[in-house]
Amino acid sequence: MSTTDKKEKKGLTIEKTLNKLSAEKKVSPLLYVLLIVMFCVSSALVGRVARSTGMLTFAGKATPIASFAGVLSSLSNICVILLVVFFKKKGFITSMVLLIPQFPLVIYRLVSEKSYSSVSGLFTNFFTVVALILLYANSKKAENYQTKLKEQAVTDRLTELPNRYACNELVKTLVEKNERFALCSIDLNNFKSINDTMGHDTGNKLLKGIADRWKTAADSGLSGTNDFIARQGGDEFILLICDYNTADDLMNTVRFYVDMLEKKLTVAECDFFITASFGYAEFPNDADNIDALFSHADAAMYEVKRTNSSNHIRKFTPDLMQNVEHTLETERKIRTALENNTIYFNLQPQYDISHKLRGFEALARMKDSEGNNISPGEFIPVAEKVGLIDKVDASVFRNSANFFGQLIRKTGTDITLSVNVSVRHMMKNDFLEEIEDIIRTSGVPANQLEIEITESIMIDSAEKALKCINSIKSMGLKIAIDDFGTGYSSLSYLNKFPADLLKVDKSFIDKMNSSDSSKQYVAAIISIGHIMDFDVISEGVEEDAQLDTLRSIGCDFIQGYIWGRPLSPEAAEELVMNSVMQ
Ligand code: C2E
Ligand code: MG
Ligand code: MG
Q: Helix/strand/coil (H, E, C) string of 379-444?
């Protein structure tokens, strides 16, 4: 079979599956024939029976045969009604073909044979035709409505692509036929922040725009394979690829869909450059059942997200499942810790360059149910991925602030408590109320609280974030930009942000003394920070040489193992007591 033939055949499978899903159940043609025969027989007998003068013994009583004419007449009516009910248009036309020729016949008898008994038959026929027309018109309306409902059941309303159900059915069909195909799981990158900042209306228009592009691509056949694109929900899509010969063909098709996103999308007079993560698995090579196929494609897609791969595509390999299981296990641990309120915090001291305590950064800590420590490097990314980070943040923020409030009341210290806040947490509508509540219940003055946000917030969610940050500032809190230098924020963004503190990321401090250019880089960040009226703190300072350099290039504050590791609240309290007494 040629590739084109194969394609046509597979195209038919896709079409057929979709049609099957939205089609009616067929009624047997035998019933059609049976109803017509019954109609003809009963109509032919009505006249004869009506004219008969004979008697019939029925239930022990002599009954005139003529009285059965009504029964036969009703039977023929029921036949035509059932024809319309079961066979819709075809049944309606057949009924009309069967009934209408009876009119001239009855009228002829009435006129030529002066058989006035036919008048009732004429009326019966007339009313039956009227009833059938009404019945058909009504059922047509119901039928249209039902067809629409059925179409909706397999079509995604927003994008008009086939939906999750239609996609699952098609996958089922392909698996049942034991066809080789690939399932590609697609998830748009940073789509949530577009929704958050630009609103859902813009988000929806973008989804529609992306879906249109992919649909056109799938229909064009330009990928060289037979493709089917469906929306799974939210910003997730599924691409099914059939009829490829080699692994390269498959990869080329996926790349074709990646490239479809390259051109900007313009919505609400804004240009968007959307990217997506693509992960795919093949049936039956990578998975021999439907569930495994979906989860393997997802695992590959999450790997793209996890590694932030600029390639955007990943094929499933068995080692990925270990990551998935590990993520699931960590997610379970986070949920349990949140339920049992066993997420706790450490406090890492921050000092000014003359070693005077500036304050503490609260850092999330977690133990599993066996009491083993799980490092934040492990559970924070998972919490971010599965959408639990806002709960982790909130728990650390509230508990550390409560502790800090008591510390201030005990010691009268004026140092600062810094807390990390994720984009997701900050974008919550009640974030400002949450801060107000924490300030009220903990008793920490607003000017002794600092919110650390990462640089990426400025790029991903610029407008809404800026609004929120301005409100936080007007409440009297300080703002720090964490991990500065690792993102790609421009100076113009930075200029707009009413921050108080830039936190230079540890990676720059690590390299600072090994190359002159790294040192110049840190010096430049500090200068820019000062020009913009920010203080600058260096994170992850471990060595005396780093401290000397930072002092020489004008760094304001230091946070690092050299002067203090993250401490338990009790140890932090002792440190404050000592510093107050000095
Ligand atoms: P971060 O906010 O940049 O916090 C500083 C991290 O650097 C902390 O790691 C701290 O222990 C570590 N660190 C500080 N000084 C040194 C040093 O001299 N040497 C070395 N090797 N490391 C040093 P940690 O506690 O593992 O936290 C990692 C990241 O997890 C944090 O980085 C922050 O991004 C995130 N995180 C921690 N707690 C929270 C939280 O409550 N909410 C959110 N959203 N993120 C949190
Ligand atoms: Mg931080
Ligand atoms: Mg940091």
A: HHHHHHHCCCHHHHHHHHHHHHHHHHHHHHHHHCCCCEEEEECCHHHHCCCCHHHHHHHHHHHHCC
Tell me: do 295 and 345 sit in the same domain.
no
Report field, pTM of the whole predicted structure over 0.85:
no
Tell whether 14 is covered by a domain: no
> Ligand 1 mean position to 566 CA, how many Å?
9
**Tens of pLDDT along 333-381?**
999 999 988 999 999 999 999 999 999 999 999 998 888 899 999 999 8
Q: 453 CA to middle of ligand 2, Å?
A: 8
| 542-566 residue pLDDT tens | 999 999 999 999 999 999 999 999 9
- Read off φ and ψ for residue 128, nearest 5 degrees: -65, -45
Range of weakest confidence among 68-72, 212-216, 451-455, 521-525: 68-72
Mutation choice for ligand 1 from 338, 346, 420, 425, CB with most ligand atoms inside 8 A: 420
Q: Is residue 259 part of a domain?
A: yes
Candidates 380, 385, 419, 511: which one to mutate for ligand 1, based on the most atoms within 8 Å of Cβ? 380
- Do residues 393 and 422 touch, judged by C-beta distance below 8 A? yes
Would you state the pLDDT for residue 1?
A: 43
> Per the omega criterion (within 30 degrees of 0), is the bond before 284 cis?
yes
Same domain, yes or no: 278 and 347: no
Tokens of 241: 């690829």
> The domain spanning residue 288 has which CATH number?
3.30.70.270
- 491, 563: one domain: yes
Q: What's the CA-to-centroid distance between 420 and ligand 2, angstroms?
A: 5
Indicate which ligand has the atom closest to the C-alpha of 562: 1
**Which ligand lies nearest to the CA atom of residue 505 in the structure?**
3
Do 130 and 208 reside in the same domain of the chain?
no
Of the three residues 87, 118, 153, the one that is the final residue of a domain is: 153
Q: What is the Å distance from ligand 1's center to 342 Cα?
A: 19
Which residue range(s) make up the domain with 70?
26-153
Give me the DSSP letters along 179-230: --EEEEEEEETTHHHHHHHH-HHHHHHHHHHHHHHHHHHHHHTTTSSEEEEE
Co-location of 361 and 440 in the same domain: yes
Q: Are residues 306 and 358 in the same domain?
A: no
Predicted pLDDT of residue 496: 75
Residue of the CA atom closest to atom 17 of ligand 1: 540
Nearest CA to ligand 1 atom 27: 376
Return the C-alpha torsion angle 285, 291, 296, 298, nearest 10: 140
3 part of a folded domain: no
Domain boundary among 124, 153, 182: 153
**DSSP notation for 491-518:** HHHHHH---SEEEE-HHHHHHHTT-HHH
Distance 565 CA to ligand 3 centre (A): 14
- Using the mean position of ligand 3's atoms as its centre, give its distance from the Cα of residue 430 in Å: 25
- 492: domain CATH number? 3.20.20.450
Number of independent structural domains in the chain: 3
Q: 470 with 509, same domain?
A: yes
The set of protein residues with a Cβ atom below 6 angstroms from ligand 1 is 348, 363-364, 375-377, 380, 389, 392-393, 396, 420, 422, 482-483, 539-542, 559-561, 566
Same domain as 225, residue 128: no
Tokens of 453: 């946000």
